Amino acid sequence: MKMIIGLGNPGKKYEKTRHNIGFLVIDELAKQYGVELNQTKFHALYAIAHTPKGKVLLVKPYTYMNLSGEAVAPLMKYFDIPVDDIVVIYDDLDLGTGKLRLRQRGSAGGHNGIKSLIQHLGTQNFNRIRIGISRPPAGMKVADYVLANFREEEQPDMARAIDNSAEACKTWMDKPFLEVMNDYNGA
Question: Which end of the chain is less crowded, N or C, counting CB atoms within 10 A of the terminal residue's CB?
Answer without folding.
Answer: N
